[in-house]
Amino acid sequence: MTGIRKLWKLFLYAGVDKEEYDKLYPVICEENKELLIVFSQLAAVMFFLLFIASMLSKGFVTDNSMTYLTFGIWMLIILFCSNCILPKYPSLIMLHVYIFEIMLYVFGTHISMLHAEKPAVSAIVFLFVTSLLFYDRPARLTALIVSYVAAFCWIVVHFKAPDAVESDVWNMITFGIVAVATTVFIMSIKIRALEQSRQIEYMSKIDLLTGVNNRNLYESRLPEYPKRCSSRLACVYADVNGLHEMNNRDGHDAGDRMLREVAAAIRQSFGPEHTYRIGGDEFVAFRVDGQPEKLSHDIDQLKRGLHDKGYHVSIGTALREKAQGEIDMYEIVNEAEVNMFADKRDFYRRSENDRRSR
Questions:
Q1: Which of 2, 59, 222, 234 has its Cβ near the most Cβ atoms within 10 Å?
Q2: CA dihedral sign of residues 341, 342, 343, 349
């Protein structure tokens, strides 16, 4: 039974879990968009070169000229859509991928029918190659292959020379089965490789303990923030109080739990995109074009919520108006850090929080 489940998962989601495939789907669509641009360019060049050659060379059958021209124009249309429409409407990417694949299948069938007395070599070549060009679930690609095989066999039976019908039908069915098996196997390799690549990228950007953005992503994004805001930018610098003492008193598991709770609270207040863990117990968050009153209110709420859980953070802020000139990111972060240290001194100045009383 386990083997059947594995085969079913391989067929449906290329061997990965459905949840993992759903997370991968935006990456798959983006990869397919880039591949669609490349392949539609190559196909357009190929068809137009074949068109020119068929017009100039006696070695080409000139009856194919209009076929090459028509499909070359279709490839240019797909290329235009890939560059100008799909970036705005990513939900249409897979539709364009299948239009591209169907166009190649139609071309292979048309070329085979132009030479009705010969075996359908072109159709079989496109049957094998087309399904391997992009990323998708093997189940959907299998449905496309089966549909193509069925349509091709119907066309052959009704329109091709009787002497070639039987061999073409059996060849298409046989190679169709092989194409399905090959597609399932190759697609599982491609999807797994994409999954591993996504995991490596995730680990390079996300702090694994807390789930917020790590210092690598912080440093790479820092210079971009002046361009992201139109009116003002706020920097929030937070430092967890008592982490060292908690580690010594309750163990590192308790300290890790505190860091996760603090990170989750900061992320909820300032959003996952703008929250970073930049050190052991230090976090930086940004708010783009927010109101100063809302910032003060959210920080008070953040501190109160963590205090109710038994945790304390020192927080410093810095605000820059874009109208006052270019925003120096290192300056605004340093100012927020200085204000954080002032808040921390005030926290430990109170006798109940004095480190020496612990």
A1: 234
A2: positive
159, two tokens: 């329109």
Q: How far apart are CA 129 and CA 142, in angstroms?
A: 13
Residue 134 CB-half CA count within 13 A = 32
For 76, counting Cβ atoms within 10 Å of its Cβ (0-12 exposed, 13-18 middle, 19+ buried), the class is middle
User: Do residue 6 and residue 138 come from a single domain?
Assistant: yes
Residue 155 CA: distances (Å) to CA of 110, 160, 344: 10, 7, 79
Instruction: Tell whether 244 and 168 lie within a shared domain.
Output: no
Cα separation of 210 and 190, whole Å?
30
pLDDT tens-digit profile of 201-219? 888 999 999 999 999 999 9
Q: How far apart are the first and last CA of the chain?
A: 59
The pTM assigned to this predicted structure is 0.72
- Amino acid found at 309: K
Largest CA distance in the chain: 100
Residues 186 and 223 in one domain: no
- Per the DSSP assignment, residues forming a β-bridge with 237 are 284, 316
DSSP string, 149-196: HHHHHHHHHHHS-HHHHHHHHHHHHHHHHHHHHHHHHHHHHHHHHHHH
Can you list the positions of beta strands (E) in 266-341? 275-277, 282-288, 312-321
Residue 26 and residue 91: Cα distance in Å, rounded?
A: 9
Provide the residue range defining the domain that includes 287: 215-357
Contact yes or no for 262/307 (Cβ under 8 A): no
Query: Which tokens go with 247?
Result: 């580690």
Amino acid letter at 152? F
- One-letter amino acid at 146 equals V
Q: Is 236 helix (H, G, I), strand (E, B) or coil?
A: strand
Tens-place pLDDT, residues 227-241: 888 889 999 999 999
Are residue 291 and residue 349 in the same domain, yes or no? yes
Helix or strand run (H / E) with residue 327: none
Q: What is the CA radius of gyration of the chain?
A: 30
